[in-house]
């Protein structure tokens, strides 16, 4: 699994997940329940992971939809 995005915006995580699921790319949002530890102030980022084989396609889909992608490594 590779990190696709890292953000403090929970709506962006939902948007990215919906885009990828629409293209039949499995994704795994992680750190989504960290608000319990941080007190819902939104300082801890959430991440979306995809399988290594889907990373290139997923990045292209996000760029095509105007979503800034995490570092291109």
UniProtKB/TrEMBL annotation:
InterPro entries: DUF2007, N-reg_PII-like_a/b
Residues of the DUF2007 domain: 1-64
Gene3D superfamilies: UreE, C-terminal domain (3.30.70.790)
Domain of life according to the entry: Bacteria
Pfam family, one: DUF2007
Protein's UniProt name: Putative signal transducing protein
Organism ancestry: Bacteria, Pseudomonadati, Pseudomonadota, Alphaproteobacteria, Rhodobacterales
């Amino acid at each position: 699994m590779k990190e696709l995005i890292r953000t403090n915006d929970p709506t962006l995580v939902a948007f990215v997940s919906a885009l990828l699921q629409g293209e039949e790319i499995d994704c795994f949002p992680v750190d989504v329940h960290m608000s319990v530890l941080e007190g819902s102030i939104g300082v801890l980022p959430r991440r979306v992971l995809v399988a290594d084989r889907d990373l290139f396609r997923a990045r292209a889909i996000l760029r095509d939809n105007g979503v800034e992608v995490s570092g291109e490594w």
